[in-house]
Amino acid sequence: FQYLKRFDQGYNLDKFCYKAHSVEGNPAECLQRFLLHCGISDPSWSELRNFTWFLNVQLRDCEASVFCNPDFVQDTLQGF
Fold first, then answer.
1. What pTM does this model have?
2. Which of 9, 17, 36, 69 is the most exposed place for a label (fewest CB within 10 A)?
3. Domain tally for the chain?
4. Would you write out the chain's pLDDT as a tens digit for each of its 80 residues?
5. Could you tell me if 24 and 2 are in contact, meaning their C-beta atoms sit under 8 angstroms apart?
């Protein structure tokens, strides 16, 4: 949710890192944002769950990767 919210607001996500147990927004806003981004016009709960699970895994892996760390790659992969 935090990544999608910042993405929609036009923030640069390169430096953003999720902090465990941090809470933003409310459940209705979270659901609305997931519905907006999941890519299915009328998703079931299982489709939303799969979307959020997959997104979470990808973002967690991205945060853990040295190749996605802007301090490591600096500007060599800008826009990649």
1. 0.78
2. 9
3. 1
4. 999 999 999 998 877 888 888 999 999 999 999 999 999 999 999 999 999 999 999 989 988 887 776 666 666 656 65
5. yes
Whether 80 maps to a domain, the answer reads no
Name the 3-class secondary structure at 69.
coil
Residue-wise DSSP of 3-53: HHHHHHTT--TTS----TT---S-HHHHHHHHHHHSS-SS--HHHHHHHHH
Looking at residue 67, what DSSP letter applies? G
Is residue 79 one of the residues assigned to a domain? no
Q: What is the Cα–Cα distance from 63 to 77, expressed in whole angstroms? A: 16
For residues 43 and 47, give the distance between their C-alpha atoms in angstroms, rounded to a whole number. 6
Asked if 35 and 43 touch (Cβ cutoff 8 Å), the reply is yes
